Amino acid sequence: MKKLINNLKNIWKVEELRKRILLTLFLILIYRIGSFVILPGVDYTALAESQANGGQNMLETLLSLFSGGGFSNASIMALGIMPYISASIIMQLLGMAVPAVQKMQNEGESGRKRINNYTRILTIIICAAQAPSYLALYVESKGALPVDAGTLWWVQSIIVLVAGAMFAVWLGERITDKGIGNGISLLITVGILARLPEAFMAEFGFAAESGNLIKIVIEIFVFMVVVLGTVLIVQGVRKVPLNTAKRVVGARAAEDQGARNYLPIKVNASGVMPIIFAQAIMTVPMMMIGQGGDGFVAKYMGDIYGFGYNALLFVLIVVFTYFYTAIMINPRKIADELKRSGGFIPGIRPGEETAGFIDSLVSRITLPGSIFLAFIAIIPALAKIAGVNDAFAMFFGGTSLLIMVGVVLDTLQQVESYLLNRHMDSLMEGTRIQGRRTQNETSGM
C-alpha cells in the first residue's frame, strides 16, 4: 500500500502527466454523459420496459456492452465508435489490395494524416448507413418511436446519431493527442467497465439468494486467473538473438557495435483484431435470426453461448489470427532492414534465408497464440455453462477482456515512461512492463 501511495504521489508531481490524466478523465466523463442523453422524442420508458421484460437479444446485448449502454439507451452516442473501428479495418484491408492506399502508408506522417481523413469520411458514410437501421430495427421494434415521427424526425435523428458518433471519435483523438493512452481504445474500455459493476452485483445478488456465496469467491479467483493468462498472451515475446557488425570510428570500434541485441516477435502480434473480425462475421447469422431466420441458423447460430456458434467462432479466430499476423509482420521487409543496418541472426545468412527463418518462426509461435486467443473468446460460453449469469459471463473472456487488458497495459506503459524519464521509481517496483525497451533490445522493424 505504501508503494502504491508513493507511485500516486510521483504521478501527481509530474505536471505534464498530471494535466494529461485530468484532461483524459474530463473527456471520458463527457463521453459517459453523452451515452445517457436520449435522442429527442424517443420514449425511454418503452425501452426500459422492453429491457426489463427480456426484450434484448444477444446481438443487442453485445453492442450495448461496447457502447457503455448508449446503444440500449437510444442515446445520441448510440453508435459509439464502432463505425470508426469498422472504417479503420476497411482502410487496413484496402492497404493490402489498393496500390494508392499502400503508397499513402509509405509516405510517413503526411500519408498517415491523409489515411486518417479518409477514415473519418468512411466513418460518416458507415454511420449514415447504420443510423436508419438502428432506428428501424431497434428503437421502432421496441415501440419507442414518437407518435408523430415523420420524415423530419427521422432526418434529424440520423444527423444527431452521425454527429454523436463523430463527436465520440473527436474525443478519442483528443485523448490520444493531449491526454494519456490510446483515446479510441480507452473509450471502448470505459464503456465495457461501466457495465462490470452492474453485472457483478447481479451475480452477487443471485448467489446471495441461493445461499452460495462461496461461488462468488471461486468466480473471482477464476476471473483473476483468466486475466493473468490474458496478460501473458498479450505480453508474450519471442526474443530472436541478433548480432551487429562492428564499425570502426577513427582508431577504435564504435562502443555500441558488435553487441548482442534481440528481435522481439510477439506471440500475439494481431492483438484483438481477429476476435473483432470473427465476431463481425458472426453477427450476420444473428441478424438473419432477428429478421425471421429459422432452421439450421436459428438452431445452431442463434445463441452466443451455444456450441455451434462458439465452434465456428473458434475456427474463424484461428484463421484471422494468421491472416492479420501476415499483415502486421513482413518477414522480407524485416530481413532487408536487418541487412541494411548490418544486423544478422547467428547461423542464418542475411537476405532470403533470414526472411524464411523469420516466416517459419512467426508461423510456429502464431499457432499456440491463435489457439489461446480463440480459447479466451469462448470462455464466456464456458462460464455460462458453469452457471454464471449472462451479464457477468461476458467479462470472463472475449473481446471485452482482451481490450481491457491491452488498454490498461498500454496506458501503464505511457505513465511509466513519464516517470522513468524524470528519474522516478518505476510504476511497478521490481518489474518491467513489456514493450519498454532496454538498451540491448531492438525491434528490427
Question: How would you characterize the overall build of this protein?
Answer:
The protein is mainly α. The chain has 2 domains: 16-194, SecY subunit domain (Preprotein translocase SecY subunit, Orthogonal Bundle), CATH 1.10.3370.10; 202-245 and 258-445, Preprotein translocase SecY subunit (Orthogonal Bundle). It is built from 19 helices and 5 strands. It has helices spanning 2-13, 15-34, 44-52, 58-66, 70-73, 82-97, 99-105, 109-139, 151-178, 183-193, 196-210, 214-235, 273-290, 296-300, 307-328, 331-341, 352-385, 390-393, 398-421; strands at 237-244, 248-249, 252-253, 260-266, 343-344. Helix 8 packs antiparallel against helix 9 (151-178), helix 15 (307-328) runs antiparallel to helix 17 and helix 17 packs across helix 19 (398-421). The chain is globular, with a radius of gyration of 24 Å. 32% of the residues are buried.
CATH class of the largest domain: Mainly Alpha
Task: Give the overall shape.
Answer: globular
Number of beta-strand segments: 5
Structural class comes to mainly alpha
Keywords:
Preprotein translocase SecY subunit, about 450 residues, mainly alpha, about 70% helix, 2 domains, three-stranded antiparallel beta sheet, two-stranded antiparallel ribbon, 19 helices
